[in-house]
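JOB MANIFEST
job_type = single_chain_structure
chain_count = 1
residues = 120
[input]
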Amino acid sequence: MTSAYFHGQHNELVDFGYSRDSRRGKKQRVVGLLTDGTGEPLSIQLYRGHTAAPTTFRDAVEKLKVRFGAEEIALVGDRGMIKALGKAALGEARFRYVTALTEPQVRALLKQRGVADGAV
């Protein structure tokens, strides 16, 4: 997912939103891209300029399941993308995911595994 700023007057998808390319004050569109394991594009989707990452992620999960009939998928995304809505959609689709852990999650995991604080 990325955003692209926009010049012009008439486009229903253009809106103000979080700019990923430091173009504050510019209207933009959000672009979602799905690729296969080799990086080849499968699908591209345009969203309104203020669409948040978790929404695009949830839509991608649905598209992979319904449109492409995917049954076994592992999706990779950052913590900002894979939030509660995305995790729920992944669970319903029976897909797996990879994302980063937060610092408290890392500390809890280390404690659970018996690694002393400060040992890492």
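[summary]
Residues 1-51 form one domain.
The first helix runs from residue 53 to 66.
exit_status = 0
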